[in-house]
Amino acid sequence: MLRRTVTIAVSFACIMIAGCVAPNVKLFTDATDPLKEFALEGEAKEKILIIPIKGVISDFSKKGMLLSEPGMVQDIVSQLQLAEKDPDIKAVMFTIDSPGGAVTASDILYHEIMRFKEKSGAKVTAVLMNVAASGGYYVALPADYIFAHPTSVTGSIGVIFLRPKVYGLMEKIGVDVAVSTSGQNKDMGSPFREATEEETEIFQALTDSLGTRFTDLVLKHRQIDPEKFGNITSARIFLAQEAKDLGLVDEVGYVSDALFKTKGLAGLPENSKVVVYRRNEYPDDNFYNTQSQFSGSSLPLVNLGLPDLEIFSQPGFYYLWPAGFQGDR
To answer: In the chain, N or C terminus with fewer CB closer than 10 Å?
Structure first.
């Protein structure tokens, strides 16, 4: 019995030692794998790249025991950089299904899309899918033409400031936090105490300023009737046809309609190659597949259907329609 125990122990030690020097074996494709081009249709030399923007817009990257995923900003910028190096890509079409997200992450994507247009000279179009609200609409603004799916929800043009509050709970359980600051506003926004009237006014001023930035960009990119602008700045949501009537989108239609329009804007032949960048090859692939990126949703080994609320754990300003958020988006 003792000999058997020793044998098992020695064998286990050998396995552990071998594991320390053996090559890293990957069971799943993850963020460390490079993006590769896959053709969905068409045979011509000229290409149209489809880039999905799906989920809450953030720059969070995630690492698990067996899987890792890039942040949405990193992943989309990587795709734009690849496209910029390919002279055959004459147009990029974004399919957007997002309730928005962090202000800075949304603004970075807006900036990078603008930069890509200027450097590449390619045409850019956008298709608003299920929800393309707040930051989801913000990132569509650089597009030369914006389509909305007939059942799309868009709008929510404004900013929201979110900050956790725990001081009520702390009082109930008899816990307090001692804070020393070098200035009266140093700990403004702290979750451990109620905001003062002055701090509330400061937060509102910051929120209004970021909201004005958003509406100014809408005025810059879209031809909006001044009489209708008040309806837009109320930050309410709209269905596709109403968004078109307000000037927020150019046309209501389907992805196939947007693809046809994109070819026309870029002066491309009907059999232009439609491509995507993915890390995996999918059988029977088409442009409704949004799996070209890992961002926007978590990748647990077992999906329990629980919402990913990581973004809401961080106090900050968001171009976000909160009601449009779903943890599994």
So the answer is: N
Length of the chain: 329
* Secondary structure element (H or E) that encloses residue 98, with its range: strand 89-98
- Residue 284's region, left for phi above 0, alpha for psi from -120 to 50, else beta, is left
CA distance 278 to 281: 7
- Indicate the domain borders of the chain: 28-159+235-324
Q: What is the pLDDT of residue 192?
A: 66
> What are residue 52's phi and psi, to 5 degrees?
-80, 140
Cβ atoms of 27 and 66 within 8 Å: the answer is: yes
What's the predicted TM-score (pTM) here?
Answer: 0.79
Interval 183-200: pLDDT, tens:
776 766 666 667 788 878
d(CA 217, CA 180): 40
| Pairing mode, strands 237-239 and 153-155 | antiparallel
Among 259, 313, 265, which Cα is nearest to 286's? 259
In sequence order, what are the residues at sequence separation of 6 or more whose Cβ sits closer than 8 angstroms to the Cβ of residue 254? Answer: 149, 150
Give dist(CA 41, CA 286) in Å, integer: 8
More confident position, 74 or 25? 74
Mean pLDDT score of the chain, rounded to an integer? Answer: 80
The token pair at 51 is 């880039």
In the beta sheet, which residues pair with residue 124?
Answer: 92
- Topology (CATH) of 28-159+235-324: 2-enoyl-CoA Hydratase; Chain A, domain 1 (3.90.226)
Report the percent of the chain where pLDDT is more than 70.
69
The residues carrying an active-site annotation are: 134, 186
Q: Are 56 and 295 in contact (CB under 8 A)?
A: no
